[in-house]
Write a structure and sequence with these properties.
Layout (H helix, E strand, L loop, with lengths): L30 H4 L3 H14 L14 E6 L6 H5 L6 E6 L6 H12 L5 E7 L10 H10 L13 H13 L10 E6 L6 E4 L3
Parallel strand pairs: 1-2, 1-3, 3-4
Antiparallel strand pairs: 4-5
Bound molecules: zinc ion.
Zinc ion (ZN) binds next to loops.
Length: 199
């Protein structure tokens, strides 16, 4: 089965068939906020947010001195799931929560410039990367005529991938603090974290 690899668009047509975000504005009492693109809707929400926002008076250093690396999955609300407040931590997210060179870049800045000392890695059940393979990359190359410089970082065993991610952090020469690195799998059905033994 060929994977659709070019469905990357910022158009207003919803990917979600539930129609939570109407493609064409339906007449309603709140039609002003249901019209327009998804981004328009986010900007409106920001205006309401800013109306009640008070300067928290914080600097950029995370209060808990922790950086959380997690998958970008929409079902994972890091702040709620971990009891985090504004200003507590750095959150570094990508597809899979994989420790790539760019994650190491962010962690290096997090530790060396902004004082974090602990690293928490979070993968999750039902991750999209479990159903992909490196074929994704080859199909992409066939389609666009250019090979991406990055690896897909697909995985079959989420526990093993957490271990690999922990290992990448622990062996990075750029990081100052590599002793407090713990990895977890978040269950999207129960909301619980399960810790992965690094061994
Ligand atoms: Zn995921």
């Amino acid at each position: 089965m060929r994977t659709n690899v070019v469905r990357m668009s910022t158009a207003s047509v919803p990917a979600d068939p539930s129609g939570r975000i109407p493609a064409s504005p339906a007449p309603s009492a709140s039609s002003a906020s249901s019209a327009g693109t998804v981004t328009d809707r986010l900007v409106e929400a920001n205006n309401r947010y800013a109306a009640d926002f008070a300067d928290p008076g914080m600097d950029a250093r995370p209060v808990l001195k922790v950086a959380v690396v997690a998958c970008m999955d929409a079902r994972l609300d890091l702040h709620d799931a971990l009891g985090l407040e504004l200003g507590d931590c750095h959150t570094i997210r990508n597809a899979g929560g994989v420790v790539t060179d760019d994650v190491i870049r962010s962690l290096t800045i997090s530790q060396r410039a902004l004082g974090t000392r602990s690293v928490v890695l979070i993968h999750h059940t039902g991750c999209g990367l479990l159903s992909l393979t490196e074929d994704f990359r080859h199909e992409l190359e066939d389609e666009v005529g250019q090979r991406p410089a990055w690896a897909v970082e697909a995985f079959r065993d989420v526990d093993q991938d957490v271990r690999q991610s922990m290992q990448r952090v622990r062996t990075s020469p750029f990081l100052l603090h590599r002793d407090d690195v713990r990895g977890f799998v978040f269950d999207v059905k129960t909301g619980l974290l399960r810790e992965i033994d690094p061994a």
